[in-house]
Design goal:
By secondary structure, the chain is α/β, with parallel strands linked by helices. 41% of the residues lie in helices and 10% in strands. The chain is built from 11 helices and 8 strands. Helix 7 (211-229) packs across helix 9 (246-254) and helix 10 packs antiparallel against helix 11. It is globular and about 55 Å long.
Amino acid sequence: MLWHRRLACDSPAAAGTTIDGSYGGAAWIAMMRRNRFGMLTCGGLMGLLLTAATGCAPQAGPPKVVLAAPTDVPTQWQGKALYNTPNAYIYAAGPESAGEADRWLAELKNYISRKHRATLDKGVVIVSEPGDAPIAPTLEEQLAMEQDPTLIVTPPRKPKSAAEIRKRLDEEGIPEAPMARAASLPLSAARLAALGLHVPRADWAVVAPSHALASQCGIEVVAASLRKKNPKLDEPRSLELARKFPDMAAKPFEIVRPQPAFILWAQRQKDWSDSQRREAILDYLKHVLRSNWLPVPSDDELDW
């Protein structure tokens, strides 16, 4: 799903002031950006500012537990190795990227257990990295994956068209390419088969970016937004400014990584009504916002 439809970050640089490691007394203000699935990934990023200002970095390290690979599951796929953890069949370029995915999956499983007293069965996670070609390079392709009727039983109430999304991106000066490369998306069984990956044991599958890719694409997006806000700012200078905060630039892409898996889980709850599925998804989106110090909009503002 294209979880990053519209990301616009005002900054002291855009206003003609300076940015340094202490933020120079001015805070970055991130404009809220809505995707088709209703996720607002930026808006008053105080939590991210505190993280960057105190020098905290994302958790690192390989998965805590790696199990033996089943005989019917590929151990290699397109330059990525299988990390068979208790949470998922993770295909990643290295143990650090696999560890990232395993940790956000564990957080999602904990949420489902606490909130719904249920479990998230094991699925497939493909971790996209810098240099990987996007699985869905255009908005139209991403929307087709989001709307796949084999996955989505209950559609959003107010889905956006590719034209609407592209217009909002253009208004903010946001390039599509980095948004596509770092998108978190659901993968149907047919899509997995087309990619040459067959994991019959998995109940669901998603693709989501590594921290390295999220940071790379986030820097490009922030730099482009800075140039839109301040046309006098050239590309080298905007990139220089954006690179001062690589972890913060990555964060909008990272906090949405679990969402495809959660939405697929909600869609698979056969005893739920459409209203129950939508309510569960809305609750989860709001939980993600609150957990990341982001403002929670009204239900009317959310696509679901």
